[in-house]
Amino acid sequence: MTNSNKQNQPLHVIARAPFTVYYEGPALSVTAVNKVGKFDILSGHADFFSMLSKCECVITTDTDDVTFDINNGIITVRDNEVMLFVNM
Fold first, then answer.
1. Residues with Cβ < 8 Å from 87, sequence gap 6 or more?
2. In the beta sheet, which residues pair with residue 27?
3. Yes or no: is domain 3-86 CATH 2.60.15.10?
4. Around Cβ 52, how many Cβ atoms within 10 Å?
5. What distance in Å separates the CA atoms of residue 44 and residue 46, rounded to the nearest whole number?
6. Is residue 49 within 8 Å of residue 35, measured between CB atoms?
7. How far apart are CA 40 and CA 28, in angstroms?
8. Which of 17, 19, 26, 44 is 20 to 30 Å from 67 by CA-CA measure?
9. pTM above 0.85?
10. DSSP letter at 8?
């Protein structure tokens, strides 16, 4: 699949903590913070891995925003799949 085709597909996001699933499903974007600063993940994003800093994470969907607090965690992005493991 070419990068332009990936940009036309929604992200699939799984955001979870050890005992909580904050969100699982399609999304338009994910906003969080790492050591460098605030960043957004959009459809078609390059492969990415980062440690997360304390912040409010925002997952934007077609219908609303899902927000939750992060104390620490990791995020991975590959082929429009975003996985967040937080508050460990």
1. 17, 18, 20, 70, 71, 72, 73
2. 11
3. yes
4. 21
5. 6
6. no
7. 10
8. 44
9. yes
10. T
> Where are the domains positioned within the chain?
3-86
pLDDT digits (tens, 9 = 90+) for 23-64: 999 999 999 999 999 999 999 999 999 999 999 999 999 999
DSSP helix/strand/coil, 9: coil
Tokens of 9: 């597909």
Quote the CA–CA distance of 29 and 63 in Å, as a whole number. 12
Concatenating the DSSP letter of every residue in 12-72 gives EEEEEETTEEEEEEEESEEEEE-SS-EEEEETTPPPEEEEEPSEEEEEE-SS-EEEEEESS
CA distance 3 to 87: 32
Contact 36, 23 (CB under 8 A): no
